[in-house]
Specification:
It is built from 5 helices and 2 strands, in the order αααααββ. It has helices at residues 3-34, 38-65, 75-89, 94-125, 129-162, and strands at residues 167-168, 174-175. It has a two-stranded antiparallel ribbon with strand order 1-2. It starts with a helix and ends in a 7-residue tail after the last strand.
Length: 182
């Protein structure tokens, strides 16, 4: 592949990630609000701050390239966020909601891991050493977030598996077991 074609792809993929990260900056507060587990909420809050840092790193890379980060909407992230939002709107039991939020968040992380893996390789091939370093730093943070979500899922998914959504109220009517949300 010619360098100029690879550079064009690199810039386009960076724009896609920039859009994706900015969409997450807007989506994470909704996930924080919806989460019923304190640990999950704290994890989302931490990731929100980290995501803002990812946006800053991408802006630094665009500045060094003399390119604008604007102009592309990441449709993949838009779809992932929409799916997560639909799950929240279904208003499931708290344990199910938290398990679903983790699932949605891990899909996002895997999408970002794939994207950052590609662009960091492109940066290396293009001799963009500083950008490669910044992109690899973000890639490692995304992997760590995914691992933390897996750890949370191990306990939260057990809670969801153990919850009984069809307990009888005494009148034969099924009901969902709910707890108050913050």
């Amino acid at each position: 592949m010619e360098t100029n074609r690879l550079k064009h792809l690199y810039v386009e993929e960076l724009k896609d990630l920039y859009s994706a990260e900015n969409q997450m900056v807007k989506a994470l507060p909704k996930m924080i609000k919806a989460a019923t587990s304190e640990d999950l909420r704290a994890g989302f809050e931490e990731h929100l701050e980290q995501t803002k840092g990812h946006v800053s790193r991408l802006e630094e890379i665009f500045k060094a390239l003399g390119e604008s980060p604007k102009g592309k909407k990441c449709k993949g992230m838009e779809g992932l966020i929409k799916e997560g939002g639909e799950m929240i709107e279904e208003d499931p039991a708290p344990e199910e909601l938290d398990a679903g939020l983790i699932s949605a968040a891990q899909r996002v992380e895997h999408y970002e891991i794939a994207g950052y893996g590609c662009v960091s390789t492109y940066a290396k091939l293009l001799g963009e050493d500083e950008a490669e370093s910044l992109l690899r730093e973000t890639l490692e943070e995304e992997k760590k977030t995914d691992s933390k979500l897996t750890e949370l899922a191990e306990s939260i998914n057990l809670e969801a598996a153990g919850s009984d959504e069809s307990e009888e109220e005494g009148n034969g009517t099924p009901r969902k077991t709910k707890t108050a949300r913050a």
